[in-house]
Design goal:
The protein is α+β, with helices and mostly antiparallel strands. About 20% of the residues lie in helices and about 30% in strands. It binds adenosine-5'-diphosphate. Adenosine-5'-diphosphate (ADP) binds near residues 51, 52 and 56.
């Protein structure tokens, strides 16, 4: 087990440097920019973000497969910037399995230990411990070409942990697999982690994977850290609009609104719409009449009113019955507001309805910076 600390990490690839010969500036000048976070001993961390945000580069830097442009990384008390990958006590499993096809599963698992001169006895003990954890104990005599995608990935992860590394790094290990297999393997990875308690970092673009596996999630965009927190923290208290819109399915509604004074309180108003929503009192000290904000509300935290209220009406834009829930969209001026409900309701397109917001579940963001208004 090990603690990992990243301090002000930067990575700039050659093609991201300014060139006299290039007219256009590259879109991102760094693949990873001023990234700092730490994971505790035995913690499971998910690095989550859209494609190209620097997740794999971060993992590869930790693994020693990419040099640092700037910054420092420590495993325990040891600065690892200049350590070779093999000296970092790291287990790695990537999306593509890279198993040795001519070798049996047993020999694939044994390979690195053999290369390090471990005895047959030690190897057998290690393989026999790890194989059942990832349910590959029945596959030990088989060769990789005979295995399914899910089985290959189990072997791949088993191989990464067989030497009991201080740090386990998983790069999109489930993204090749179909939905059901992903879910099964997700449970098994979680169980395996619970058993061996190895500090683990998983890189994924799939929020379900990060939310279900990780103790804490690092959310990145354009090479930069957006927020680090437990799944509940990033869901309930997103630090900015990006995190708010990225975490949660369907995503949080982010509506441009102008706040107006009404009596002793305030109302959210929306361009080209009669909709008025009461601003919860807890925001009173942070807002003022005429202030532009982005109102964030999750689709499960707003619903069509069951009884008629004094509120204004909005038209239904779409209705979808997904079996276990209904998705309903209404027009608010030129914006679409999505709702999701387990209730067995039905609406016609164009039908005029009133809405109820769970006031305590609303979020406010600065429209310019996207930062949360606190
Ligand atoms: P992610 O894993 O989040 O999809 P990556 O870390 O792979 O993102 O990439 C981050 C950025 O760095 C992207 O703009 C990508 O094009 C660039 N990049 C990644 N690897 C290389 C490389 N070997 N050479 C040049 N640019 C790279």
């Amino acid at each position: 087990m090990a603690q990992l600390v990243l301090k002000n990490l930067y990575k700039r690839y050659d093609n991201q440097k300014k060139s006299l010969f290039r007219k256009k500036k590259p879109p991102n000048d760094y693949a990873v920019k001023n990234l700092s976070f730490s994971c505790h001993d035995g913690e499971f961390i998910g690095i989550l973000g859209p494609s190209g945000c620097g997740k794999s580069t971060t993992l590869r830097m930790i693994a020693g497969l990419e040099e640092f442009t700037a910054g420092n990384a420590y495993i325990g008390d040891i600065r690892i910037n200049d350590l070779k990958p093999k000296d970092r006590n790291i287990g790695l499993a990537f999306e593509d399995y890279a198993l040795y096809p001519p070798l049996t599963v047993y020999e694939n698992l044994a390979f690195n230990m053999r290369a390090k001169g471990k005895s047959n006895e030690e190897i057998k003990k290690a393989v026999n411990y790890v194989a059942p954890l990832l349910k590959v104990d029945d596959l030990l005599d088989m060769k990789p070409p005979a295995l399914s995608g899910g089985q290959k990935q189990r072997v791949n992860i088993a191989r990464a942990i067989v030497r009991r590394p201080g740090l386990l790094l998983l790069d999109e290990p489930l993204s090749h697999l179909d939905g059901k297999m992903r879910q099964t393997l997700r449970h098994e990875i979680k169980r395996m982690h619970h058993e061996i308690k190895c500090t683990t970092i998983i890189v994924t673009h799939d929020q379900m994977e990060a939310m279900s596996l990780a103790d804490r999630i690092v959310i990145m965009k354009d090479g930069e850290l957006q927020q680090m927190g437990t799944p509940l923290e990033v869901y309930d208290n997103p630090a900015n609009e990006f995190v708010a819109g990225f975490i949660g399915e369907p995503p949080m509604n982010l509506l441009r609104s102008t706040i107006v004074t009404a009596g002793r309180g305030f109302l959210f108003t929306f361009a080209d719409s009669d909709l008025r929503v009461e601003v919860p009192e807890r925001y009173d000290s942070l807002i003022h009449d005429g202030m532009e904000v982005t109102l964030g509300v999750r689709p499960v935290d707003v619903r069509v009113a069951k009884k008629e209220t004094a509120g204004s009406f909005v038209p239904i834009a779409f209705y979808e019955n997904l079996g276990d829930e209904r998705r309903i969209g209404v027009r608010v001026g030129s914006m679409l507001l999505n709702m999701a409900t387990p209730d067995a309701v039905y609406f016609e397109r164009g039908q005029m309805v009133q809405l109820e917001f769970k006031a305590e579940k609303t979020h406010l963001f600065h429209p310019g910076t996207g930062e949360r208004i606190r």
